[in-house]
Amino acid sequence: MRSRKVQFLVISLLIAWSFITYYILMRTNASQLDTEHQQKQLTLQQLLPQTLKEQTKSQRLARTLIEFLHMKYNVVGTTPSISIVAAELSNELPEQQQPAQIPSQTYLANGEPVIPILVFACNRVSVVKCLDNLVQYRPSVEQFPIIVSQDCGDEATKHAILSYGKQVSLIEQPDQSDIVVLPKEKKFKGYYKISRHYGWALNTTFQKGFEFVVIVEDDLNVAPDFFEYFLGTHKLLQQDHSLWCVSAWNDNGKASVVDTGKPELLYRTDFFPGLGWMLTSRLWSELSVKWPKSFWDDWIRHPEQRKDRVCIRPEISRTRTFGKIGVSNGLFFDKYLKHIKLSEDFVPFSKLNLSYLLKENYDNTFLKQIYVLPLVTFDELRRNLIAIEGPVRIQYNTRDQYKRISHLLGLMNDFKSGVPRTAYHGIVSFYYNKRRVHLAPNANWKGYDLSWS
């Protein structure tokens, strides 16, 4: 009897020990699984950026492959059998992650200048939208090398740029040190970094010996004739020293106030537009020695820098910004910038006679024509009560008058260094109700007033 009790006790202890051991093992396994799960989650989080980068690379490679097949076999809508070209791909496809070098050649064999497109980038992977456009419309790799200058050191953005291989050059702003600013200017620190970046990148590019450089921000799309526009206008900068830039941008370029039937129409403007613009090495030599620490675009518009020089700008913009989020926090984007009309036509600017834009020709025609036009009111224009056809003039005499009228017309109504956007000799030209309109000061205009800003 006692023997059975001992046996029962031993068996009970064994069963209890088995359950305890099982329970401990289960807890341990569960803990390990939980730890492994957390590690997997952490690993996934760490791998996600790399995965996205590899996805971008794969997409670029696939697109390059398709473009190669189309070029190589001149096919439309179909792809030749991979077996036909498999042996050739490794030799003929552009190498990935190998950016081109900044070219040393500054002029082509025919004497035409090499004009680099200098793209400023920082930490927006969406730079690919800009680069896709530039690569798509570029007529010549040799004449228009694309140089991307990156600040910030953002790896995802750098990887996106490198995915273009030898189609673009990449230079990296080496000074990533913090910029010390006054406490009240802390919110403007981004503008200080942008100005530092511009100065370094322009110095680096012009030191190669180029005569012209076209500046593009990473949030711009370009028109089909973007390159042709600068190819046709660069000679004006050589001929006329009253010109100091050619801009692809019209600040008042909303579809409602431009003549879409005149994509070839160009103007002179006292206002520096930026947003896709060309300057000369001569101008950079002048500006670089006094380049500002911040707000370079407002600085360049000041009379001390402008010196009564003007820019060329188009009736219909050859650039359009898609960058609502940035250092400027979307200033003007919703109200104006997203409504800018991007030209869809291809104008052969290099084959057109653009001599009408030279100062002596322009001032003798444009300015004289303005002040013989019929004088009308905004109300007459708005209600279409003007009996005659053709262009007209609306007059303003004060700052408040200008701001009120331009606001009613849907134009940008701010001033920079006293200059209204797109103005030439105070005259702002636009298209309204199928009619050319010039918002102009009186004929005795004495010049821009800095107090109007």
Automatic annotation (TrEMBL):
Top-rank lineage group of the source organism: Eukaryota
Annotated compartments: Cytoplasm, Perinuclear region; Golgi apparatus membrane
Pfam families: GNT-I
Topology term for the membrane: Single-pass type II membrane protein
Listed EC numbers: 2.4.1.101
Keyword Cytoplasm set for record: yes
Segments crossing the lipid bilayer: 7-25
GO molecular-function terms, A-Z: alpha-1,3-mannosylglycoprotein 2-beta-N-acetylglucosaminyltransferase activity; manganese ion binding
Cofactor(s) essential for the protein: Mn(2+)
Keyword DNA damage: no
Pathway: Protein modification; protein glycosylation
Signal peptide (UniProt feature, chain positions): none
Cofactor note: The cofactor is mostly bound to the substrate.
Primary location recorded for the protein, binned into one broad class: cytoplasm
Task performed by this protein: Initiates complex N-linked carbohydrate formation. Essential for the conversion of high-mannose to hybrid and complex N-glycans.
Family label: Belongs to the glycosyltransferase 13 family.
Protein name: Alpha-1,3-mannosyl-glycoprotein 2-beta-N-acetylglucosaminyltransferase
Organism for this UniProt entry: Drosophila busckii
